[in-house]
Amino acid sequence: MDHFTFTDMKKIKRENLGDAVPLELFRTIRLIGLYQALPMNGKGTTLTIGRKIGEEFGVTSVNELFGLFERMKIGIPIITHEDDKGMSIAVHDCFCEGLPIMEGKMVCDLEGAIIEGALSKIRGKRVSVREVKCNVHGDECCEYIVKY
């Protein structure tokens, strides 16, 4: 075996600490380790990682993707608009909710890239996803524009 799969990630055998890690650890990895430590706020890295994660999820529908997002506590996604060219997805209760507001900052590119990877796999062709709102920017939720 030369790589891990999402199925492998579900194999948890921690008798004492269980299957959860604190949100502050995830935030620290994302926003201090990647966002602050890497060039361009780690955007190239998080986009590559997110797309791969989305592809590996193995979901076959938008509903399945949204259910997984919620079960994994990534956020609660809701389609706010959809037509033949794409959709808008609002994500409530995102990992960044409650962080200090920093105007002009959008920090949820990993989550958008996960959506992009999963939707590209579901549709069988590349889609693009762009974050247009973020709690850290001062918006009421994080939001993504998906173009088919």
Please, could you describe this protein's structure?
The chain has 148 residues and is α+β, with helices and mostly antiparallel strands. It is 39% helix and 18% strand. Strand 1 and strand 2 form a beta hairpin. Helix 3 packs parallel to helix 5 (109-123). The protein starts with 5 loop residues before the first helix and ends with a strand.
The chain-level mean pLDDT equals 96
Instruction: Give the neighbour order of strands across the main sheet.
Output: 1-2-4-3
Radius of gyration over C-alpha positions, nearest whole angstrom: 15 Å
Largest sheet: 4 strands, antiparallel
- Which spans have pLDDT < 50 for at least 5 consecutive residues? none
Measured between the Cα atoms of the first and last residue, the distance is 34 Å
How many β-strands, per DSSP?
A: 4
- Helix and strand element order: HHHHEEHEE
Report the portion of residues in β strands: 15-25%
Alpha plus pi helix count: 5
> Which percent bin holds the helix content?
25-40%
* Sheet/helix structural class: alpha+beta
Shape: globular
Pfam families: V4R
Protein name: 4-vinyl reductase
Domain 4-vinyl reductase 4VR: 86-148
InterPro entries: NO_sig/Golgi_transp_ligand-bd, V4R
Strand and helix layout:
Blueprint: H1 6-9, H2 23-36, H3 43-56, H4 62-71, E1 76-83, E2 86-92, H5 109-123, E3 128-133, E4 142-147
Antiparallel strand pairs: 1-2, 2-4, 3-4
Supply database-style keywords.
148 residues; alpha+beta; four-stranded antiparallel beta sheet; globular
In short:
This protein is an alpha+beta fold and 148 residues long.
